[in-house]
Design a protein that fits this description.
about 400 residues; alpha/beta; nine-stranded mixed sheet; 12 helices; about 25% strand; binds ligand LLP
C-alpha cells in the first residue's frame, strides 16, 4: 500500500503530504484495499475447512471498516456491549457475533441475548450461571461455547499471551467438561461451540495446532457424553511483520487445520484482528522540534503515546519513514511525543535524515493504534482517514477540546 511518487510517500497512490495538508496531523490513515485483500486472503486460505471469519473488533473498531468488512461477509468477535453497539451501527449481523471476555456484565449479557448473538464464549462457571439466569429471565435460550485454556505457550509478549494455565482467560479442560455438562442440562442454554484464544502476534503455526489438538480431544470426549458442539473457534493471534518477523504461514496453517479436522463436520471460526488491519494503517505525524540531550537526539513529533501506546506499553517496534525526501540532519533519532513522560516514545534510535516540519509515517499502526488511544494530557485524538478507490473518506473527524470536556461540569 505504501509507495513513492517523485520522492513523496503515498498510500494507494495518494500523497501523504496532501492528506496532511487537508486533514492536519497527527492522523491515522488506513488503506481499505489492503484490509480487503487481507480478508480475502484469509477467507480463501480457510475455504477448504469452510472457515468463517469473526473479526476482532478491538483491533480497530472504526465503523467505516466494520461496515465494509460486514459487506464482505465477516462476522465479529466482541468483548463489550460497546463493541456490539459498533457492530450493529455498522450493519453487521448479531447472528455472526461471538462475545469473548472474562468480565461480561449483566447489562452486556442482556443486550447480547436480546440482540441474538451467535454465541457467548464463556470464561468461568460463575459467568455461565449468570448467562443462564439472565436467559431464563428473558425467556430465551442463550447459545454458549466454553473458552478452553489449552495451556499452550504462544511465544509472544507476556502481556498478550492468553493461553497459559496461569492466565485469567478461559477454563482448563477438566472444568470445561463440568461447564458443558451443566449447560447441556439447562433449558435456558444451548451448547453451540468450543473455543480458545491463545495470544496475539503469534508468528508460528505450531501453537495453534497444539491448541486445536487439545480442543478436538475435548470435543471428542463431549461427543461420547452425548454433547455435540457445532463449531470450533480457534481465536485470533496471527502475527504480522513489524520488523523482521517471519511472515505467518497462513497456507501452512490452513493445511494443518484441514488435516486435523478431517473426519469431523465441525464448522471453523477464527477471530483475527491484527492480521487484517495492522499493515493497512499508518500514523501520520509532523516533527515539531529537533533537540539534543546528553548523547541522544530527539525528534519531538505531534503524535504521542496517547495516540499510539504500543511502543510504550510493549516496547513494540514500528517502522518510521520520512514522508518527503527533503534535506535534513542525518543522525540516530529517538522519535518522541509531547506527553510528559519519558515512556512517551514512538521509536528509539532510528537512522534518519530529519528537519523540523518534516512529516513521518509510523508504519503498521492499523491494529491496536487508534483503538487503544486515549485523551491523556487532554490531547484530542487524531482523525481516522480511509483511502478507498483513490480518494479519502473521513471515517472519524479530529476531536476538539470541546468534545473532551462536554461530559464534565465545574
Ligand atoms: N480473540 C480474542 C478473544 C482476543 O482476546 C483477541 C485479542 C483476538 C481475538 C484478536 O487477536 P489478534 O488477531 O489481533 O492478535 N493490544 C495488543 C494486542 C492485544 C490482543 C488482545 N486480544 C497489541 O497492541 O499488541
Amino acid at each position: 500500500m505504501l509507495s513513492r511518487d517523485a520522492g513523496e510517500l503515498c498510500v494507494d497512490g495518494l500523497r501523504l503530504c496532501d492528506i496532511a495538508a487537508e486533514f492536519g496531523t497527527p492522523a491515522y490513515v488506513y488503506s481499505w484495499p489492503t484490509i480487503e485483500a487481507r480478508y480475502r486472503e484469509m477467507a480463501a486460505a480457510l475455504a477448504d475447512v469452510r472457515g468463517q471469519i469473526r473479526y476482532a473488533v478491538k483491533a480497530n473498531g472504526s465503523l467505516a471498516i466494520l461496515s465494509r468488512l460486514a459487506g464482505l461477509g465477516a462476522g465479529f468477535d466482541i468483548v463489550s456491549g460497546g463493541e456490539l453497539e459498533r457492530v450493529m451501527r455498522s450493519g453487521g449481523s448479531p447472528a455472526k457475533v461471538v462475545f469473548s471476555g472474562v468480565g461480561k456484565s449483566t447489562v452486556e449479557i442482556d443486550f447480547a441475548i436480546k440482540a441474538g448473538i451467535e454465541c457467548f464464549n464463556v470464561e468461568s462457571a460463575s459467568e455461565l450461571a449468570r448467562i443462564e439466569a439472565r436467559a431464563r429471565l428473558l425467556g430465551c435460550r442463550a447459545p454458549v461455547s466454553v473458552r478452553v485454556n489449552p495451556d499452550v505457550d504462544p511465544g509472544t509478549h507476556p502481556y498478550i499471551a492468553t493461553g497459559l494455565k496461569n492466565s485469567k482467560f478461559g477454563v482448563p479442560a477438566n472444568v470445561a467438561l463440568d461447564l458443558y455438562a451443566s449447560a447441556a442440562a439447562s433449558d435456558a442454554l444451548a451448547v453451540v461451540g468450543i473455543d480458545c484464544h491463545i495470544g496475539s502476534q503469534i508468528t508460528a503455526a505450531a501453537p495453534f495446532a497444539t491448541a486445536l489438538e487439545r480442543l478436538l480431544e475435548l470435543a471428542a470426549t463431549l461427543a461420547r457424553q452425548g454433547i455435540d458442539v457445532r463449531h470450533i473457534d480457534i481465536g485470533g493471534g496471527f502475527g504480522v511483520c513489524y520488523r523482521d518477523e517471519e511472515p505467518f504461514d497462513l497456507e501452512g496453517f490452513a493445511a494443518t487445520l484441514a488435516s486435523q479436522l478431517a473426519g469431523t463436520d465441525l464448522a471453523v471460526l477464527v477471530e483475527p484482528g491484527r492480521s487484517l488491519v495492522a499493515d493497512a494503517g499508518i500514523l501520520l505525524t509532523r516533527i515539531e522540534y529537533l533537540k539534543a540531550a546528553g548523547e541522544r537526539q530527539f525528534a519531538v513529533v505531534d503524535a504521542a503515546m496517547n495516540d499510539l501506546i504500543r511502543p510504550a506499553l510493549y516496547d513494540a517496534w514500528h517502522g518510521v519513514e520520512k514522508v518527503g525526501d527533503g534535506p535534513g540532519q542525518q543522525g540516530i533519532w529517538d522519535i518522541v511525543g509531547p506527553v510528559c513522560e519519558s515512556g512517551d516514545f514512538l521509536a528509539h534510535e532510528r537512522d534518519l535524515e530529519l528537519a523540523e516540519g518534516d512529516l513521518l509515517a509510523i508504519r503498521n499502526a492499523g491494529a491496536y493504534g487508534f483503538s487503544q488511544s486515549s485523551n491523556y494530557n487532554t490531547r484530542p485524538r487524531p482523525p481516522e482517514i480511509l483511502v478507498e478507490d483513490g480518494h479519502t473518506v473521513l471515517a472519524r473527524r479530529r476531536e476538539t477540546a470541546a468534545d473532551l470536556l462536554h461530559l464534565e461540569c465545574v
